[in-house]
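WARN no homologs supplied; continuing
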Amino acid sequence: MLQGLTDIHCHLLPGVDDGPDEMEEAVRILRKEYDDGVRQLIVTPHYRKGMFETEMEKIVFAYLALRREAMKIDSCLRLYLGCEFHAHSKMEQELEGKIRPTLAGSRYVLTEFSSSHSYERIRNQVSGLCRKGFLPVLAHIERYPCISQDMDRVRDIKACGAYIQVNAGSLLGESGRRTRHFCGQCMKQDLIDFIATDAHGIRQRKPNLLACRKYTEKKMGSDYAEKIFNVNPEYILQNKVL
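OK structure emitted
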């Protein structure tokens, strides 16, 4: 078993998306993650056509630089490269062509949709990814009204092969009472697979995984918290099917 918490969704690489602009802030975010007990992170810069299309060379350069900084904090602090892939019609082909990385080189793909996407659109994308052998992890599912307003659709999309990720801040109430209620219902019905920070900065959208783990343990018990924050992320890092 891996030691410490694992954050599978965060925007820590400097100068590549809407996360930190400079390495100095990136390191401060990384230290906050470390202080929260996080020992494994998958950094997931955005990839979205017409908005975030940073060259992979620049992303890899930033990733290797931040990984060196992580080693200075603690040799046990491990960084892996991933991507938050905004869904589009040629997503499967781009993944097969390795245009953007999966989560830590695994079959898992952090998949983002727009709040305006229909449920049929999301369902079809999930099915298409699964047919190609990928394992779609739906990023912050609480942001998609077509799903968050119908718990049956959460169960249905999981049955289609999707894995469910919610943001720690959403569960802690940072996105409002309605969003917190939805995430709480998902948790009570054991529909969540991963909880991650989706961290973007040190002041706003900052890391909060430890606070969320404590909250989750209080609500659901230590075994459940261990599963969500420790056991399940290890399946991604080992490229095993959850």
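The chain has one domain: 5-237.
OK
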